[in-house]
Each structure stands twice: as C-alpha cells, then as structure tokens.
Amino acid sequence: MAGREGPRPGGRSARVQASVHGAVQALMTRMERAEITIPMIAVEAGVTPSTIYRRWGDIQELLADVAVERLKPDMQPVDTGNGGKDLLAWAEQYAEEMSSKPGREMIRDVLAAQDGSGAYQCCNFTKQQIEVIAARAADRGEAFPEVDAVMDRVVSPIMYRILFGEAPDTAHVARLVSGAMGLVSKAPASV
Amino acid sequence: MAGREGPRPGGRSARVQASVHGAVQALMTRMERAEITIPMIAVEAGVTPSTIYRRWGDIQELLADVAVERLKPDMQPVDTGNGGKDLLAWAEQYAEEMSSKPGREMIRDVLAAQDGSGAYQCCNFTKQQIEVIAARAADRGEAFPEVDAVMDRVVSPIMYRILFGEAPDTAHVARLVSGAMGLVSKAPASV
C-alpha cells in the first residue's frame, strides 16, 4: 500500500493521501462510518473515485490506512525519571485511549482490512514507545525487561481485554506492569 | 441477538437459525465472503431476506454469529494427567487453530460486528476450557494458576501476536505456559 509506506512529503502522491485522509475524517464527524462510500470520499477530497480505488482497492483498506495514521503516537512516553513509572504511566494512557470509542473504532478498522500490514504497523508503533522507555531506563543504569516481554505481559492482556471483554481497570494495569517489572527485580513484584 | 442467546432446540426459530447458518457456510465454500449478500443467503436458506434483516440486522452481525458458533469448542481439553501439560497441549492447539486462515477469518468476523457480545462469548468459551483444565488439576491436588492469570499470561499474548504480528511459534507458547505455571511453583519456571 503506497499510503502506508509513506509517500515523499509534499509530492503529488502525499497531497492526494492527505486530502483523502482528511476527507474520511471530515465525513466521520458528520455520519456513521457504515454510510460512508468511496464516491462520497472522492467528492469531499476533490479527486476521482478511480484514484481512490487504484490506490486503496476498497473502503476497508482505506479506513484501515486512516486508522493506522491516527494511531501513530503523537508524543514520546512521559519521562518520570524511572523506567517502571514510565511504563505504568504509558500503559495507563494506552489502556484508556484504546478502550475509548474512537480507539475501539480505529482498532476495528485496522483489523477489518484483509491486508494485515496495518495491524503489524500498529504493533510496531507500540513497540517503539516501549523501546523509548527501555532506552531511557538503560541510560539511567536501571534494569528493564525485554521489549518483547513487555509486549506479552503488559500490552497483550490490555488489548485482549479491550477486544474480547472489558477494558482492564487501573489496578489491573498496575498489576500487569509490576509483574513485568518483577522479571528484572530480585525482590518480589509489589502490587 | 436471538441467535446468540440460543433459541429453543427444535423450535421454529432454531430451524431458521440452523438453515441460515448452514447457508452462510455453504456460500463461504463457493465464494469470497466479501461477495456474499443477504439476498443470496436468503435464497440458499429458503427464507425471505426480511427474516434475516429482522433477526440479525446486517451481514456483519450474521457473519459474527456464524463465527461464534464455529468457534465454540467441540471437545474437552486433552487430559494428559497433569495440569501444566494439559495447558501446554491446549495452548499449542489454540495457537494453531486461531492462526489458521479459517481461524483468522472467524476472529475477524467476530471483531467486525458492532455488537461486542460475540467477542465476549468467544472469550468465555476460552475461559471455560481453562476452567476444565484447572478443575482437573484441583481434583488431582495439583497447584494451578488462577484462570484470569492464564488469560493474561497465555491466551492474551497468543491472540495479540496472531492479530497484530506473527503467530507465536511452539517454543514461545511453551515459554508462556511455563511462565504461567511458574506463578504457583516454588521452583523457578523452566523454559
């Protein structure tokens, strides 16, 4: 998908993408996503429907592309001066954002696309945030678990519960984080 | 959703449901799911389209209902004589089935429905399987982790990786299981 690989900034392709993404987001504020069609998006974006079909194939892929773009983190994880606290602050915010109505809709759009590259990219955004926290912890000389272990122990249970049950409460998120941090501490994990 | 609450077996409602579910599954073997429409399903099932619209609302809800039905486990977890081994055998099979093409399609159908009750029911099917393993372990006098902890430590990472990345390999599944079992053993978890 050209859109996902990121077109050259400022080029014609980038302008088309920005315009189509903007059109989708504008339409979403005015109507239910199930009512939105590619011809409507084309009118709103000022491009031909065939431009959209050529580039995205179908509306599911386009919605997934827009959702991936919106799921891209727009800030670095908060720096609290301690790796475990950074991870807790990040995980609380992640659980809150992903379980919100727009968060759930974005995840659903990403997972509905046949092409799994959007879901893969979302997972990478999350990994990058954990890597930032891990690198800061390393700079401070603190022990911090492997990024992969944090994905399994903190990120996965939060996402599973949001998708298949009820969003985890803050006490649950705190237990997940302290469990992951317990991997690198000699002392038993505190709750 | 009447279909999900399970109509009285043998009643008219149950016969309609069975016929419509059968029609969806038959059509899925002959064409891409994206091509399947409610009028087609109605013809195949020998009911009117309005029967389907009245009962399921839209095709997403119907596909989710069919997927939930197919995701219902058709066997008890294998009894190996040991809780940890039961869990390992179950987790390996779960990872394999859910990461298969039909498994992924069923999960996608369940998650695509606006109504989240199908996803909730799938999570319950999984919990029930773990509960069977936990109850057998208790009968044998073995220590076994809380079902909720198994959901967080074993089920969630498997599902997260299937949805957002690559399916976990058997070594990874084994590490997840031994990590969860380590919660109740004094000895360090073996990998």
UniProtKB/TrEMBL annotation, chains A, B:
<protein>
    <submittedName>
        <fullName>TetR family transcriptional regulator</fullName>
    </submittedName>
</protein>
<feature type="domain" description="HTH tetR-type">
    <location>
        <begin position="14"/>
        <end position="74"/>
    </location>
</feature>
<keyword id="KW-0238">DNA-binding</keyword>
<keyword id="KW-0804">Transcription</keyword>
<dbReference type="GO" id="GO:0003677">
    <property type="term" value="F:DNA binding"/>
</dbReference>
<dbReference type="Pfam" id="PF00440">
    <property type="entry name" value="TetR_N"/>
</dbReference>
<dbReference type="Pfam" id="PF16859">
    <property type="entry name" value="TetR_C_11"/>
</dbReference>
<dbReference type="InterPro" id="IPR009057">
    <property type="entry name" value="Homeodomain-like_sf"/>
</dbReference>
<dbReference type="InterPro" id="IPR036271">
    <property type="entry name" value="Tet_transcr_reg_TetR-rel_C_sf"/>
</dbReference>
<dbReference type="InterPro" id="IPR001647">
    <property type="entry name" value="HTH_TetR"/>
</dbReference>
<dbReference type="InterPro" id="IPR011075">
    <property type="entry name" value="TetR_C"/>
</dbReference>
<keyword id="KW-0805">Transcription regulation</keyword>
<feature type="DNA-binding region" description="H-T-H motif">
    <location>
        <begin position="37"/>
        <end position="56"/>
    </location>
</feature>
